[in-house]
């Protein structure tokens, strides 16, 4: 509504400014578009060629293309790219094998070819993958644990890569056969700095489809993000140096010092802006609508200021986002949070799409200078040095890890180093004083295309082939799950027993400082537990509203939970599991088994919103206790009063509505449903059926009652084979469809009660 | 401080204990463990159950009882004994800890298999409280209930159903041709190995005793 409209408006505005700013930043070989700033091109009011004689009739119908040309074309580009994205997902099979970036580049190539043939100029290159880096907040604070490792890989790794590649390329240049003798060492180093930057966009695209284990993922992704600091410094340093005739050792030291300034400065700015943002949002309780604006503006400001001082803007924005995520999230309303998240995802998605798109376009439309030797060797060295680098670095860092990276992980790390838009942008903005700029550009594009296409496409089968440790998104057997959890508990217990140094020791210290001082300043009502309790209150209220909303229908079937009849002991087991049962069991297990200190954050894919499961867990427990405390009352009537029902609803529905089935199991024995709804469930097994009961009550079920045995007859006939064996089971947790998976926070139509 | 002389005297013995299982361990690590032992035992020579139960960090652990019991379980002492001890000395402590050492990366496949078996055995013993060599349905149920006990919202019936389901699973994978009236006794060690054969025990179930926070260890107060 108003908020969303407002934010989209501002966002579009920002987008445009971004484009134009970036467009004007470097010598990007385009455009009339970049030049003009205002969307309002002064219209030459309908060329008056015959001024004096003609009586001007009021034009009934006019067209004025130049006036809207810029925003129009931009919008068209964006739309085209988005259509492409839709298209990919329609045909699912492609996306399994070919990462999105490849497809986008291909389309870009096609479009570029078209444009080239009509001699059109491509629009400015967007380097707005900056926004994309907001993906980071999803991986947030647990990052701290692997921070050092990530940093290690990022900094040292990139340095190693650049210097290695640069020197070897320089060696190659000496060979007269390739005809590139005029490239001196500095230029080579500059070039290698450009292409050693691993690109987060490409990597994210590929890795998330392949679902490697989270450790790997975090390290690679983190490396991509942080190596921006290194790359920028190196780039600046080398480009400066490339123009100098002579290099002296003191320059090298200055370079090193500069590196620290860039990196740490970026972080400092980011944190500063984050704090300011947090402080500001402390006072925004009356102006909820503009809260997202603050978030965006401050982060963009951080970016710009960092650019102003030529320090690492990406670092600035990352740290700003991190800080904001932590503090601001507690200050703003839930709806603002959702807005922010969605907007960011949208923008990130768009920019990512566009970048690859333009890559394709520009590939065709620029003049290339091709040099077989140089380019092939570049490819070779890029690969070789990365592999070597990873090898060496992991050797050094492995002793400090609990689960060391094995060879397969290392392979994944090395192979997953895709180059992408960052290198592209940097190559484009090379100063023209470098003689072989075109060659460099061509080489960069070649490397990018190669890595994205070949490595991107082949990484999936390769990883499956060598069986890198994957995240376990598949259901394992129940036993495995139970025992794994047991093992974890045991390990935790033993660790506690022998006083293992908590790796979060410093984090704990920081948290104490945080709680005592920072939160008081930056957070409105800085109570220590405010977030969860506040969230709970909000959710509770929203639950209430939701019941009222769903009074009209669409309330699903009750779960018919039929457990094993207690009479049957393990001897007479002739049962079989339905897939739905298993899933439900798994859900119960995973949601209830005590979660010990997680070492890695569960990564859920870039298209999924973050998981609020922990707060929901707590919420459910509270529900349970409330229910229990209300239980004596319910004894009196089988028709449970409506207010009581209100409390027993589980927390809001999420995208994973299926998993909500587990929540129904937390019922008390004696909470029954209304008479009307009850009989109708008996005929439902394993299929999510929807019964629209006129009452707003969600029928709850008794567990493990013998009376429900009769349903097994129908069940047995219907039982689908799960391949689990020949046993058939009596227990079926049917898939209960909870009231529509509504977005948790997007319930009611505004005005009042902004929570 | 710990009893340095006593420690040095027996150091070779300690190394031998831990090394006997193809683990390599450095003196540093044994020293850390010894310090910890001293703290837990209050500088006595033996630890009793109460000492271990006093550790506050363990309070949140749902299976702390089993873990503590495992320390006093004779079966974990590699000596084919059964029953339980009341107190353990450092050697027994070390013996139990040795189950969690990471395997040397230079170990051969057989050695790894042996190590894996040991670790699995440890887990198995944790379940099999009556030491009849099988995990019966009741024992399994106890385990599952304890695991789910933290949430407080799970009914015992649900826990039981889950335990039943798990048993079924084991039965169906391991004894696929059971006739309808057969009685599935319980999970034997072989079946246990079978179910868990996909898991990389060697890395999951190992601790590096490197990072002991000895500076902040006070009896009962840990940094976490």
TrEMBL record, chain A:
* GO process terms (BP): regulation of intracellular pH; sodium ion import across plasma membrane
* Residue span(s) of domain Cation/H+ exchanger transmembrane: 79-463
Q: Which UniProt keywords apply?
A: Antiport, Cell membrane, Ion transport, Membrane, Sodium, Sodium transport, Transmembrane, Transmembrane helix, Transport
Q: Which parts pass through the membrane?
A: 6-23, 94-118, 130-153, 159-177, 219-238, 259-280, 300-322, 343-366, 372-393, 413-434, 440-463
Q: Show the taxonomic lineage.
A: Eukaryota, Metazoa, Chordata, Craniata, Vertebrata
Main localization, broad class: membrane
To which species is this protein native? Neolamprologus brichardi
List, in alphabetical order, the Gene Ontology terms for molecular function in this entry.
potassium:proton antiporter activity; sodium:proton antiporter activity
User: In which compartments does the protein localize?
Assistant: Cell membrane
Indicate what this protein is called per its UniProt record: Sodium/hydrogen exchanger
Cite the Sodium/hydrogen exchanger regulatory region domain residue spans from the record. Answer: 557-662
Q: Does the keyword Transmembrane apply?
A: yes
The segments labelled Disordered in the record are 710-740
Positions with biased composition (Polar residues): 713-735
Note the InterPro entries from the entry.
Cation/H_exchanger_CPA1, Cation/H_exchanger_TM, NaH_exchanger, NHE_CaM-bd
Membrane topology type, per the record? Multi-pass membrane protein
Instruction: Name the NCBIfam families for this protein.
Output: b_cpa1
Q: Which GO terms describe its cellular component?
A: plasma membrane
Q: Which Pfam families match?
A: Na_H_Exchanger (PF00999), NEXCaM_BD (PF16644)
Instruction: Tell me its family.
Output: Belongs to the monovalent cation:proton antiporter 1 (CPA1) transporter (TC 2.A.36) family.
TrEMBL record, chain B:
Tell me its family: Belongs to the calcineurin regulatory subunit family. CHP subfamily.
Q: Which GO terms describe its biological process?
A: cell differentiation
What organism, scientifically named, is this protein from? Neolamprologus brichardi
Q: What protein does this entry describe?
A: Calcineurin B homologous protein 3
Its Gene Ontology molecular function terms? calcium ion binding; protein kinase inhibitor activity
In terms of PROSITE patterns, this protein maps to:
EF_HAND_1, EF_HAND_2
Sorted alphabetically, which InterPro entries does this protein's record hold? CHP3 (IPR052490), EF-hand-dom_pair (IPR011992), EF_Hand_1_Ca_BS (IPR018247), EF_hand_dom (IPR002048)
Topology within the bilayer? Lipid-anchor
């Amino acid at each position: 509504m108003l908020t969303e409209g407002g934010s989209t408006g501002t966002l579009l505005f920002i987008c445009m400014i971004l484009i134009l700013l970036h467009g004007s930043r470097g010598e990007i070989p385009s455009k009339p578009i970049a030049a003009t700033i205002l969307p309002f091109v002064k219209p030459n009011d309908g060329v008056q060629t015959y001024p004096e004689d003609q009586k001007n009739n009021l034009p009934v119908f006019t067209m004025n293309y130049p006036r809207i040309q810029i925003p129009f074309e931009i919008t068209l580009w964006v739309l085209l790219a988005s259509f492409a994205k839709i298209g990919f997902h329609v045909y699912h099979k492609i996306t399994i094998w070919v990462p999105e970036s490849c497809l986008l580049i291909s389309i870009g190539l096609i479009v570029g070819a078209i444009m080239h043939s009509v001699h059109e100029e491509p629009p400015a290159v967007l380097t707005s993958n900056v926004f994309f880096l907001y993906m980071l907040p999803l991986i947030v604070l647990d990052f701290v644990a692997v921070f050092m490792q990530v940093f290690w890989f990022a900094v040292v790794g990139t340095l190693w890569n650049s210097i290695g590649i640069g020197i070897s390329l320089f060696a190659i240049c000496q060979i007269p056969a390739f005809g590139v003798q005029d490239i001196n060492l500095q230029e080579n180093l500059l070039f290698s700095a450009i292409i050693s930057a691993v690109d987060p966009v490409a990597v994210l695209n590929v890795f998330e489809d392949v679902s490697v284990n989270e450790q790997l993922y975090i390290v690679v992704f983190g490396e991509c993000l942080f190596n921006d600091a290194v790359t920028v410094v190196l780039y600046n340093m080398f480009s400066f140096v490339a123009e100098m005739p002579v290099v002296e050792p003191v320059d090298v030291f200055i370079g090193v010092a500069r590196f620290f300034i860039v990196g740490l400065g970026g972080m400092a700015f980011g944190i500063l802006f984050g704090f300011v943002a947090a402080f500001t949002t402390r006072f925004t309780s009356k102006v909820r609508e503009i809260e997202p604006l603050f978030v965006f503006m401050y982060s963009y400001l951080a970016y710009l200021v960092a650019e102003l001082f030529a320090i690492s803007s990406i670092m600035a924005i990352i740290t700003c986002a991190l800080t904001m995520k932590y503090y601001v999230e507690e200050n703003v309303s839930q709806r603002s949070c959702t807005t922010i998240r969605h907007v960011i995802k949208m923008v990130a998605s768009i920019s990512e799409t566009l970048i690859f798109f333009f890559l394709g376009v520009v590939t065709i439309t620029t003049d290339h200078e091709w040099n077989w030797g140089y380019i092939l060797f570049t490819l070779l060295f890029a690969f070789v040095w990365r592999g070597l680098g990873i090898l060496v670095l992991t050797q050094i860092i492995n002793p400090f890890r609990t689960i060391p990276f094995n060879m397969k992980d290392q392979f994944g790390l090395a192979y997953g180093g895709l180059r992408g838009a960052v290198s592209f942008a940097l190559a484009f903005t090379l100063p023209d004083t470098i003689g072989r700029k075109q060659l460099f550009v061509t080489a960069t594009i070649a490397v990018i295309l190669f890595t994205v296409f070949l490595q991107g496409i082949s990484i999936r089968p390769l990883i499956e082939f060598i069986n890198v440790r994957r995240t376990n998104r598949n259901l394992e057997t129940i036993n495995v799950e139970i025992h794994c959890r047991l093992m974890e508990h045991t390990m935790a217990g033993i660790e506690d027993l022998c006083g293992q140094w908590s790796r979060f020791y410093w984090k704990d210290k920081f948290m104490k400082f945080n709680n005592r001082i920072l939160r008081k300043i930056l957070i409105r009502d800085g109570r220590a537990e405010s977030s969860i309790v506040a969230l709970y209150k909000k959710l509770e209220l929203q639950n209430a509203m939701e019941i009222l909303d769903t009074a009209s229908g669409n309330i699903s079937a009750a779960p018919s939970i039929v457990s094993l009849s207690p009479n049957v002991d393990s001897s007479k087991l002739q049962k079989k599991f339905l897939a739905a049962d298993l899933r439900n069991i798994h859900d119960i297990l995973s949601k209830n088994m005590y979660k010990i200190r997680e070492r890695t954050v569960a990564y859920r894919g870039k298209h999924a919103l973050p998981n609020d499961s922990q707060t929901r867990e707590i919420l459910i427990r509270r529900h349970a206790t409330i229910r229990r405390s209300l239980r004596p009352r319910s004894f009196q009537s089988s028709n449970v009063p409506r207010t009581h029902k209100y409390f027993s609803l589980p927390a809001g529905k999420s995208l994973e509505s299926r998993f909500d089935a587990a929540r129904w199991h937390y019922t008390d024995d004696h909470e029954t449903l209304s008479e009307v709804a009850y009989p109708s469930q008996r005929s439902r097994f394993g299929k999510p059926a929807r019964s629209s009961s006129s009452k707003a009550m969600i029928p709850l079920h008794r567990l493990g009652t013998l009376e429900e045995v009769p349903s097994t007859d129908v069940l047995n006939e219907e039982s689908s084979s799960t391949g689990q064996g020949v046993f058939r089971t009596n227990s079926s947790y049917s898939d209960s469809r909870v009231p529509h998976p509504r977005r948790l926070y997007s319930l009611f139509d505004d005005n009042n009660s902004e929570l | 401080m710990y009893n340095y002389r006593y420690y040095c005297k027996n150091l070779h013995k300690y190394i031998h204990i831990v090394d006997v299982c193809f683990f390599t361990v450095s003196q540093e690590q044994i020293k850390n463990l010894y310090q910890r032992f001293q703290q837990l035992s209050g500088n006595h020579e033996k630890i009793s159950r109460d000492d271990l139960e006093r550790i506050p960090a363990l309070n949140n652990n749902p299976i702390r009882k089993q873990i503590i019991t495992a320390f006093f379980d004779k079966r974990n002492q590699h000596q084919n004994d059964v029953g339980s001890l009341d107190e353990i000395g450092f050697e027994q402590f070390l013996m139990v800890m040795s189950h969690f050492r990471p395997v040397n990366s230079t170990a051969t496949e057989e050695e790894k298999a042996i190590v894996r078996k040991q670790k699995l055995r440890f887990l198995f013993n944790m379940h099999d409280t009556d030491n009849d060599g099988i995990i019966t349905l009741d024992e399994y149920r106890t385990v599952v209930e304890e695991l789910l006990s933290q949430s407080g919202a799970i009914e015992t019936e649900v826990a039981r159903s889950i335990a039943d389901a798990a048993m079924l699973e084991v039965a169906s994978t391991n004894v696929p041709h059971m006739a309808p009236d057969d009685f599935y006794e319980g999970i034997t060690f072989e079946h246990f190995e079978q179910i868990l054969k996909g898991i990389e025990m060697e890395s999951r179930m190992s601790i590096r005793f490197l990072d002991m926070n000895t500076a902040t260890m006070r009896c009962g107060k840990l940094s976490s």
